[in-house]
Amino acid sequence: MGTENPSAPARAQSGVAANEPPTRANSRPRRLEFGVTHDNTRHTTRFTVVGNHLAQHPELSLVAIALAVHIQSLPASAPVDIKTLAARFPEGRTRIAAGLRELEAHGYLRRVREHTPTGRIVTRTVSCNQPRAAVRRHEPTRPTHQQTRAEKPGGGPGPRAPREKRPLPPVPQPAHPSPDLLRTAVDLLATLHRHDPRLLLSACDAAHLAPGVAAWLQRDVEPAAVRRALTTDLPPDGPRRPAALLAHRLSAQLPPPPPFHAPAARPPLQHPLQNCDSCDRAFRAPEPGHCPLCRTTTARH
Length: 301
Description:
Elements: H1 15-18, H2 52-55, H3 62-73, H4 82-88, H5 93-105, E1 109-115, E2 121-127, H6 131-138, H7 145-148, H8 179-190, H9 203-217, H10 223-231, H11 242-252, E3 273-275, E4 282-284, H12 292-300
Antiparallel strand pairs: 1-2, 3-4
Helix pairs in contact: 3-5, 8-9, 9-11
């Protein structure tokens, strides 16, 4: 009957008193909730700086966060493919592959395919410790007016920097080029603008295209047929690079070689007619003299 409950509060507190700021009258030490405490020692060697945006990412899984931290701690050129990571950690290929996809989706990883000097295609993995900064760094920037045009002292825009000209595609080569054949090809190209003003070529472009036209002419194609093949069905808005379009047509529409014809047999050699010095008969021989009958009679006697 007289035993008190030690766990019961001494007196009930009103809702107003609970919300009042602590004063000398009602201030009491609040009980701390149990949680993490840090016993930190400053790193001086072999450490990696990781941002809280990664360590406390609200959407990434724990596997993805751990993979990102591990990859950021590796030296450059270290292998980070799924097979290598699965051999290093017990999570298995499926979970590691899913974690890498998470990091790629949130910008912490980029996978770039590149061609090696030997022609192989390899995948290069780029680790980004701050995805937002990396996105801003790789976004194409629009040039400003000051960047596109150099200001003159008088305030006017200066000349624009010339753009690098791309090389023309290759053209077929004639089997037996000759100066006369190439001259005919250059003359044909130099008159294309008469049929379409958009096909006005420079001397350098005509010299590049001339062997291709010569290859057509060597295949028994008349110059008029070559001209029609180069000027027919052009794009309605005009070719942006006329010489490149003509080079493509000369290669893509190259006709087959003409059919092979065996040379005709040479006719038998026929000597001119001669008059026999003895009987005056006509006979064929390379030089004047006696006919075969007179030569036979003379031989018998």
